[in-house]
Amino acid sequence: MSIRFDSVSFTYGETVIFKDLSFCFEQGTTYVLLGESGIGKSTLLSLIKGLQRPQSGTITYQGCSPDNIEVVFQELHLFPWQTVYQVLEMPLLINQTPSESRKKRVTSCLAELGLTQVQDRYPHQLSGGQKQRAAMGRGLITQPDVLLLDEPTASLDQETKANAQAMIAAQQQRRQNSLIVVTHDPEEAVFLGQTILLLKDQDVTPISNPFYGSQLERDSLAFYEVVLQLKEQMREARQ
Ligand SMILES: Nc1ncnc2c1ncn2[C@@H]1O[C@H](COP(=O)(O)OP(=O)(O)OP(=O)(O)O)[C@@H](O)[C@H]1O
Questions:
Q1: How confident is the model at residue 75 (pLDDT cuts 50, 70, 90)?
Q2: 195: closest CA among 210, 178, 209, 177?
Q3: Angstrom distance (rounded) from CA 196 to CA 192
Q4: Span 210-233, average pLDDT
Q5: Which residues fall within 8 angstroms of residue 167, CB to CB, at 6 or more apart?
Q6: Domain ranges of the chain
Q7: Which residue has its alpha carbon closest to ligand 1 atom 11?
Q8: What is the C-alpha separation between 176 and 30, in angstroms, rounded?
Q9: Under CATH, which architecture does the 10-78+146-238 domain have?
Q10: ipTM of the complex
């Protein structure tokens, strides 16, 4: 599958967000969309998912369709009346998965995400990290071609954030589908992104991440060297 942007321009009224953006999202790759607040990261997610249409240019889906792209929004959208089990089960009920297979998939996804112990709890009984994992489980359970995560760790404390990032990386390695993560955190970008797309000048600049897949420790100097380089590029993008 691939999602190809050709000369895409998008504006909100007079405000130009993207101008002549061309890029191709490829199968099985993890992308991180990185950029300062208000630059257009969430807008780019909406364009990928087909929730917004560009004023000019084309977006072409090959081997996938917007229906097979799942988005986990920043707000999570967990219903107060649904337990964690029901959150994960809902997409399978909607696509009429038979009951036995539904039960098997929900049980296994709960276990993978470390949610088995809290499967009967409602959102108000969950920690921030557990809520995030439940929302991610809902996105993953139908095994979409592409999963879009909008600032998945923004509201989490430092330790929960590191755990959530490790969980996202592990899930991605297991599934090998395409993952697109929005963040404004350069450390998260270097930890998760195979290709980092720096948003600047109403366009994206792809940066391939030397840390990705290198088996280097996150606490290593090498990791922070890449983070520092990226911070420098972000600074330049602001000027
Ligand atoms: N519906 C809308 N109408 C008009 N302007 C909008 C609309 N949605 C977003 N914008 C503006 O477009 C710009 C890009 O918004 P977007 O939410 O894509 O940025 P972002 O990079 O995701 O920001 P953040 O990191 O703060 O979430 C912002 O300046 C925002 O105020």
A1: confident
A2: 209
A3: 9
A4: 87
A5: 113, 114, 133, 136
A6: 10-78+146-238
A7: 38
A8: 9
A9: 3-Layer(aba) Sandwich (3.40)
A10: 0.97
